[in-house]
Amino acid sequence: MEPERTFFEYLQSFSEAKSPIDFVLIYDNLGRFFDGALVTLQLTFLALLVGGLIAVPLAIARAYRKLFFSPVIRVYTYVFCGTPLLVQVYLFYFGLGQFKAVQESFLWDPILSSPWWCVVIAFTLNTAAYTTEFMRGAIETTPHGEVEAAKASGMSALTRMRLVILPNAFRRSLPAYSNEVIFTLHGSVIASTVTLQDLLGVGRWLNGRYYLAYEGFLTAMIFYMAIVLLITVALRLAEKRLLGHLRPRETSSSAAARVAA
């Protein structure tokens, strides 16, 4: 009787005999891909968190046309939304180091000399610029009736902003922010160009080390697809919960017709 083979032996046999893809090599390096996925998620969500905190006051200043602040913020968002993220990362990582004043500053050794922090800063400023713009639009289009009702109830401007305008804007900008989360995740592949071992960086390492054509990229693609699926499901559930009151409700006549049918 043939002894029972392990999963690894089946995988090795399949890769050698029937598959153009070396699944054994992928299996042996899965730990590196999980480490790369962790780096990708850390970069993405740290940038989204800090960028979101930056974007809220900037969006308020833009929406209410604050003198001096609004033009400066508009220039900032134009620069970061109008230039490629790759160029922004290169400017922080390669560009700042060309200035002697930067190298001698207190920020150089712990932050600006590190590829990790340069990527985080570039990602944060980039996502903050995009978030500022769609948050500004959401604040400006807050229903006038809700604002007037808050005024009539005696709320101060700060209380109206905290209890009425911002919660309303957050809910209505959630679909746009969902896209921004995915775009930031996809943009994180740029980190591999400045030596960080994110998901794509691990895929490049695997292909380069073993002279492969696509095993590393294919594995990275599957990881990205799984992460995007989880994020999409979570954001859809959040949208369903926070925007449920905006969905059209069933009228009594349509309900009666459905019951009769």
UniProtKB/TrEMBL annotation:
GO terms for molecular function: transmembrane transporter activity. GO terms for cellular component: ATP-binding cassette (ABC) transporter complex. Coiled coil: none annotated. It is found in: Cell inner membrane; Cell membrane. Signal peptide: none annotated. Keywords: Cell inner membrane, Cell membrane, Membrane, Transmembrane, Transmembrane helix, Transport. The keyword DNA repair does not apply. GO terms for biological process: amino acid transport. Pfam families: BPD_transp_1. Its main location: membrane. The chain crosses the membrane at residues 37-61, 73-94, 114-132, 212-238. InterPro entries: AA_ABC_transptr_permease_3TM (IPR010065), ArtM/GltK/GlnP/TcyL/YhdX-like (IPR043429), MetI-like (IPR000515), MetI-like_sf (IPR035906). SUPFAM superfamilies: MetI-like. It is a multi-pass membrane protein. Residues 37-235 form the ABC transmembrane type-1 domain. NCBIfam families: HEQRo_perm_3TM. Belongs to the binding-protein-dependent transport system permease family. HisMQ subfamily. This is Arginine/ornithine transport system permease protein. It comes from Puniceibacterium sediminis. The lineage of its organism: Bacteria, Pseudomonadati, Pseudomonadota, Alphaproteobacteria, Rhodobacterales.
